[in-house]
Automatic annotation (TrEMBL):
Residue ranges of domain Mur ligase C-terminal in the record: 308-421
Protein name stated in the entry: UDP-N-acetylmuramoylalanine--D-glutamate ligase
InterPro entries: Mur-like_cat_sf (IPR036565), Mur_ligase_C (IPR004101), Mur_ligase_C_dom_sf (IPR036615), Mur_ligase_cen (IPR013221), MurD (IPR005762)
Documented EC number(s): 6.3.2.9
Gene that encodes it: murD
Top-rank EC class of the record's enzyme: ligase
Source species of the chain: Salibacter halophilus
Role, per record: Cell wall formation. Catalyzes the addition of glutamate to the nucleotide precursor UDP-N-acetylmuramoyl-L-alanine (UMA).
Keywords associated with the record: ATP-binding, Cell cycle, Cell division, Cell shape, Cell wall biogenesis/degradation, Cytoplasm, Ligase, Nucleotide-binding, Peptidoglycan synthesis
Amino acid sequence: MKRIVVLGGGESGVGAALLAKEKGFEVFLSDAGNLKQDKKDVLSHADIPFEEGGHTEDRVLIADEVVKSPGIPDTAPLIRKLDTLRIPVIDELEFAARFTKGKLLAVTGTNGKTTTVKLFYHILQKANLDVGLAGNVGQSLARQILEGDRDYWVLEVSSFQLDRIYETRFHVAILLNITPDHLDRYNYEFDRYVDSKFRITKSQTEEDHFIYSADSKAVVDELQNRDLKAKQYSFSAMGYQEGLNAWLENEKLIININGELEMSIQELALQGKHNASNGMASGIASRILEIRKEIIRDSLSDFQNVEHRLEHVTTVSGVEYINDSKATNINSTWYALESMQSQTVWIVGGVDKGNDYSELLDLVKDRVKAIIALGKDNSRIHAAFDNVVPVIHDVTDMREAVGLAYRESRKGEAVLLSPACASFDLFESYEDRGNQFKEYVRAL
């Protein structure tokens, strides 16, 4: 009997363990940290042995195959040992994909993945296709396949997941953009990060489809070095150019595949050029699947935004409060500030991943009237903006941040939580950070 060892007891790990058990494998799950009680209950109920608080190497190194949590870096000593012993180490998506007959539709990119995935899923649901949503969002693919296979799976795929995907074939692959992020996982080499993102095309054939942004220099440059087998499609928010399949022109979004779909950008449920790009990517993918233009148009008009991504919370005394807690890097926050139409009090800060704030200077000069720096160490924020923004407050809890933002804002302005940083100095997660923001805003 084949021995499967699962490293990491989060959503993807537990899902992989359950699927492996169902398929008749000998399974063992090991987590270096503490497992949540609900995960332990699920594993115990399924009669899957597990350990927490550390890895017992003797039990891990006898595996025929290891399914690794994407959060565990390839440089971890145990992963290096497994690689040296040539024991296959794969991602949960790679394992789960073996057990579906459905077509895999994958989205990656530094920013916009979650919005695009949910928008694409929304369109396919509206078209009454048998479709599931998995990957880096919601329940794991493995657990959902266990509950029932689908004809189509829309997957959000991170670079960490792609690093351990070798044979999985994506019928449609969308690459939204590539900008520097998570470089600590790639030895601070941008080329390695780019290569990781392009792994989404690795097993594609002539019958598959690759959609990319013509606005992303890193993507366009890398395409010159690659001979991809899949059919290629591109989109741009910068206007028409030859060869594009979707573009913005004269305040209109145009998708040209099997006939032209045209709609005013004012009709889009999600505003801002970045969201128009997300709409074009999902629209192209939907036309490839022969979804009717009317369904795509309706879906782009009535889509409800992702929580914690430019989420309108409420308006208090004429001031709009916007929760963009999911913006954990500079590029995401650039998009948020670019979409602001009024003077803004900006709540920023957290665990800085080596941010270059200079990219935001022009937008900050133009749109930000005050900064609330929310973090244990705000020195880099001060270095970047002390001479740019007249008011900068330092805070270490969300209640104080919201209170100060309320006092600094006036009718017709906005308060934007878009941290450009990870959340782990003061919060459990970006969701916790966003939820606290919403709680204190609604209490004003």
